[in-house]
Each structure stands twice: as structure tokens, then as C-alpha cells.
């Protein structure tokens, strides 16, 4: 075998490594990148991981079980299933990260978790279209508006919408899926309106046949999500909003397996009256969802995000500054 050329080692010397000094040594050798944010993230990650091991006196068997668990998450993931997002969801990390990055200014719609079943192949449909091919589900008409915090309509907003079918499964969970169903993309009109025909949402279990499901079982936690429908809003100059609406009175409204429910996102359904049925070309008496979404501008959200970040860092007593709205060590 040909010998490999030697490369110059330009790294800080490691000290005699012990339980007490491994953390500063790992941080030192990880601090050579010119990327200040990466250096800071790695320093905090190493600090908290090492403190966790020391605090819990982590055993070798437990460490290996965790490694095996993460390997299993990777092995079961594919193009339409992401076990790592599911893990982030059930640990509450997804909601935490979203709340940090997209704080809600007054009078604006709150965000919720993305979940692992959003896709990028949903068809773009005109307002009033049906996004479902499920004959077993209970039909629902949704009449929605998009406005700013001053009540002005916002036109031209791209709206991703997705939900399960009547069996509680997303289309990507069915073998042999050949086209999208129970999902679509719409664009708000000049009055900020969009409307569509879907299904009354149903409660469903998150995938529990993989490592995350086994973890929930060990923790004596249920795997159910309350009935809901997802929305994602995108338009240049406006904060990217990922949210969902949850049906009031669902058995899992107060114990969502992925911590997605917020009081402001819990809604009641009505019934379509004769006049509405004739106007929108649907049957009288089917479920009716009415909701007004309120978006914040990107500037509004970034300003609030910076204010909250500065306040949180001051409480922690950390000497940091914000660069591109993200904290890095202040070495000036």
C-alpha cells in the first residue's frame, strides 16, 4: 500500500486528558475555524454533552444504546419519512427552535411544528378546488383570509396545505403512492383570500414502528396527534410561517405527542348553510372551516427575534453579540 503524504499538523497541543479537562481541550481543538458561529455552536454543544455525561455518570452501555438508537433513526429514514425530525418533534426541540426563530408579534398567527410529512410535489390548484380523492372522509370547505397586523389583505401568498386522509395516514405513508393527495398549493387572491375543499381532520398516531415509537413506549407516552390541518405561508418580505389548526375538543388536544397545539390555533368547525353551499358549489351541511391568518413582515419578526435574543443572553450573563441575528462571542 502506498504511503500517505504527511500533512502539517497545526493544532493546539492537547493536555493530559482527564474527566475534568477533556471539555476545554475538545473546545480548543474545535476552535480553529474562521466561522465564528460554527465555533460557538460546537463549543456549547461539547460543553452540554460533556456536562450531561458527567451529571448522569453515563454508562458505556447507555452510551452504546444511544448510538444504536441514532443509527436506527437513520436506517428507517427515507425520502418520505424522516425519523430525526420525528425525534426532534417528540423531544420538543422542533417547537423550541421554531419559537426562537419565528417569535410572534402581537396580533399575528402563531407557528406550529412542520412535522415529517410535508412534501414538495403538491399540485398548484386554483381557489375552490378539492385537494382530496378520499371518498370515505367527511367533506370540509375551508374559507380563509391572509392579512397583515393592521388588517390589510395580502395577495400573492403561496400557501402549502396538507392533511391526512380519513384513515389518519398521509399520502406518503401508503405503499404504491403514485401522486399527491390531501395536499395542495394555493395562492391568495387580491383580497387575501384562499378557499378549498378538503376533509374534516382526524386524529392519528405518529409513526410508532421505529426507534422513536419504541422510545415513547419506554417513556409510557402515547403516540397520538390531535386532529389538525397544516399550513405554510411564503411571500417575499414576509416572515415564513409554518402553522396548523387544531379541532377543539379532540381527546389529544392537551397532550399532543409533538407539542404542536397552542390555544390560539384551536378552532371550531361550523356547517355550510344553503347560501354558502350555492356560492362555493358544495353540498349544504358539510363541515365549514373559517379562519383569518395574520402574517408579520420579515422586518417585524427579525426585530422581535433580536430583542428576545439580547434579553435572553443578558439573563445568562454571556458576552455575545448578534451577527445576522445569531449570537457569536463578542471578542472586541
UniProtKB/TrEMBL annotation:
Annotated Catechol dioxygenase N-terminal domain residues: 35-107
PANTHER family in UniProt: DIOXYGENASE, PUTATIVE (AFU_ORTHOLOGUE AFUA_2G02910)-RELATED, INTRADIOL RING-CLEAVAGE DIOXYGENASES DOMAIN-CONTAINING PROTEIN-RELATED
Annotated CDD domains: 1_2-HQD
Family in the record: Belongs to the intradiol ring-cleavage dioxygenase family.
GO biological process: catechol-containing compound metabolic process
Keyword match Transferase: no
Cofactors: Fe(3+)
Coiled coil, from the record: none
Keyword terms, alphabetized: Dioxygenase, Iron, Metal-binding, Oxidoreductase
Domain of life (superkingdom): Eukaryota
GO molecular function list: catechol 1,2-dioxygenase activity; ferric iron binding
The protein, known as: Dioxygenase-like protein
Residue ranges of every copy of the Intradiol ring-cleavage dioxygenases domain listed in the record: 130-294
